[in-house]
Amino acid sequence: MQPSERLIVALDVGSRENALSLVAALRPKVQRFKIGMELFTTCGPPLVREILEKGGQVFLDLKFHDIPNTVARSAVAAARLGVGMFTVHLSGGSMMARRAVDELEAHCQVYRVPRPKVLGVTVLTSLSADDLQQLGVGRSVEDQVVALAEMGKSAGLDGVVCSPREARLIREACGRDLLIVTPGIRPEGSEQDDQSRTLTPRIALEAGADYLVVGRPIVKADDPLEAAETILLQMDGA
Ligand code: C5P
Predict the structure, then answer these.
(1) In angstroms, what is the span from residue 135 Cα to ligand 1's centroid?
(2) Which of 7, 12, 119 has the most ligand 1 atoms within 8 A of CB, as the residue to mutate?
(3) d(Cα 235, Cα 196) in Å, to the nearest integer?
(4) 168-184 burial by CB neighbour count: b if 16+ within 10 A, else e?
(5) H/E stretch holding 150
(6) What are phi and psi of 121, to 5 degrees?
(7) Is the pLDDT of residue 217 over 90?
(8) Does the predicted TM-score (pTM) go above 0.85?
(9) Mutate to test the pocket of ligand 1, among 162, 186, 213 (most ligand atoms within 8 A of CB)
(10) From the CA of 183, how far away is ligand 1's center (Å)?
């Protein structure tokens, strides 16, 4: 894959206008855009359709976590909307993940539409070992991340979202077939913002990431296209 296919820009902005002007500015170089809870709650499916009409691909990051029937129906709704990827929380359990993939597969075969990739969120990077203890999880963060990634793989998910620092562990445990998507990327020599466990684009790719999610270093830049080009160049060196 070319670097431009591996870069996903997180549209972490609060309005349709800001999102579309970023897409317009970046489109020459960037194809994939992540829409998270804030933007989706504000703008909903019409914005997804507008981005798709402009030739972008959409990663819908709503982290579904509910009973299997509800998640499976939401997965089918995401496919109808035309997104290329979406997320579910692996802590929803293997039955939830399996049902989502199975019903998605059946829907996409019947309607002959491309099946979106389903990505599992392992352990949120905001959670510490103490938080896991409070939730009744006795394992270390790393062991829990790997256990959930393995569970997601057995349930038929296409990939996982994880910290770039966990990419190598997951790659070793789950093999080449599982897609690894990593946020927490900062270009060489830039601000860390509130991300405490970041890696550079090149090191994240070398650790086994397939896709990199980048938000503020591009979205908050004076010239977002130039910032994206710098990151693409750094990815090209990997
Ligand atoms: O601005 P920044 O590059 O830090 O944005 C990273 C994006 O990835 C944000 O949309 C954020 O919600 C998301 N994310 C993250 N860490 C995770 C999971 C998702 O930063 N563990």
Answers:
(1) 23
(2) 12
(3) 21
(4) ebbbeebeeebbbbbbb
(5) helix 141-154
(6) -85, 125
(7) yes
(8) yes
(9) 213
(10) 5
SS3 for 84? coil
Among positive and negative, which fits the CA dihedral 123, 128, 129, 133? negative
**Model pLDDT for residues 19-47, shown as the tens digit of each residue:** 999 999 999 899 999 999 999 999 999 99
Question: What is the average pLDDT score of the chain?
Answer: 95
Which residues, listed in sequence order, are joined to residue 88 by a DSSP beta bridge?
A: 64, 120
Q: Is the pLDDT of residue 193 over 80?
A: no
Separation between Cα atoms, residue 173 and residue 165, nearest integer Å: 14
Q: For tokens 């296209």, name the residue.
A: 225
63-93 pLDDT, tens digit per residue, is: 999 999 999 999 999 999 999 999 999 999 9
Q: Is 184 in the pocket of ligand 1 (CB under 6 A)?
A: yes
Identity (one letter) of the amino acid at 34? K
Superfamily the domain 3-236 falls into = Aldolase class I (3.20.20.70)
